[in-house]
Amino acid sequence: MTNLAVDLPGLRLKNPIMPASGCFGFGREYSDFYDLGKLGAVIMKAATGSERFGNNTPRVAETASGMLNAIGLQNPGVDKIIESEVDFLSNYDMPIIANVAGSTIGEYEKVAAAFNQTKHVHALELNISCPNVKEGGIQFGTDPNMAANVTKMVKQASNLPVYVKLSPNVSDIVAMAKAVEAAGADGLSMINTLSGMKIDPSSKRPLLANKTGGLSGPAIKPIAIRMVYEVKQQVSIPIIGMGGVTNAEDVLEFLLAGASAVAVGTANFQNPFICPELIDELPKILTKYGFLSVQDAIGKGAILYE
Ligand SMILES: Cc1cc2nc3c(=O)[nH]c(=O)nc-3n(C[C@H](O)[C@H](O)[C@H](O)COP(=O)(O)O)c2cc1C
């Protein structure tokens, strides 16, 4: 039998598949479709210090090659998330990863400290890379020193393992990865969406009220694979890979590039059963390509740079 289990800092995964932040809410809607305990883990929607209403609508648009979104971190605030959503998710047998966002380092610290007080959150995913919020987000995600600084402060504010979620909207992703690793990150999560835009010829206006948004879906997979591959050569902390996964071969591709687990985002909107389907398909695909376990495949596509 193919072994799907993977151990990562703070996370014992029964399989490497988890829904990506913001594409699964807090799981309630999906829990009507299947047992969330089947998932390797769940990454919750971003939490900020207090409630955020997000950007004006329209904030989602389809393109010929993926989806654009500029939700703007809408969420009920960390306290409410802990009170109702973490409590709800803790009924299922899987680790919970909390996605932490903020406009200032102090806000990141506050959110991280609050999750640290709960007994059901197993790790933090530090969202330094949201391209759609005016203050904070983008600067943290594109400047190695600021990314390192927020990582260090969050590590001090909490005992939970911290997976820093990197933005692809940079010219040197390896420099970002190395900076947060040096600052104490326990793992990386990559990639977030790529900055994009769509203009409607009839109205002659951008389709999103925010004008620009984050592109996700299959169009970004080759970029994500390249970035995971490059970063894997240069850091020793594990990577949760994501960007455009729609089938089990995509999952294997991320593992081969060096990811230890894989998150699925946009595909959940097209097919709410995508995560359990991938979990069921993965053993067949691993066997087809000669692997006995997930662990066996991690990084096997990565040849060291000379
Ligand atoms: C509608 C939407 C909302 C998102 N919200 C968040 C979020 O709150 N925090 C975050 O770190 N990433 C967020 N993301 C990014 C995803 O977690 C993921 O990194 C990205 O979409 C790439 O994966 P995919 O191509 O499988 O969707 C969001 C993506 C979408 C499409």
Which structural class matches the secondary elements? alpha/beta
Strand order of the largest sheet: 3-16-15-10-9-8-7-4
Tell me which oligomeric state these chains represent: single chain
What percent of residues adopt helix (DSSP H or I)?
A: 25-40%
- How are helices and strands ordered from N to C? EEEHEEEHEHEHHEHEEEEEHEHEHHH
Beta-strand content estimate: 15-25%
Give the mean pLDDT. 94
Question: What is the count of β-strands?
Answer: 16
Overall geometry comes to globular
Radius of gyration: 18 Å
Describe this structure in words.
The strands form 4 sheets. This protein has an 8-stranded parallel β-sheet. Strands 5-6-14-11 form a 4-stranded antiparallel β-sheet, with no helix packed on it. The longest helix has 15 residues, at 274-288. The chain is globular, with a radius of gyration of 18 Å. The mean pLDDT is 94. With 306 residues, it is α/β, with parallel strands linked by helices. The protein has 11 helices and 16 strands. 53% of the residues are buried. Helix 3 packs parallel to helix 5 (144-157). It is 34% helix and 20% strand. Helix 8 links the parallel strand 15 and strand 16 (261-264). The chain has helices at 28-31, 78-89, 105-116, 137-142, 144-157, 173-182, 221-234, 248-257, 267-270, 274-288, 294-297; strands at residues 6-8, 11-13, 17-19, 42-43, 60-63, 66-69, 96-100, 121-127, 162-165, 187-190, 194-197, 199-200, 205-206, 212-216, 239-242, 261-264.
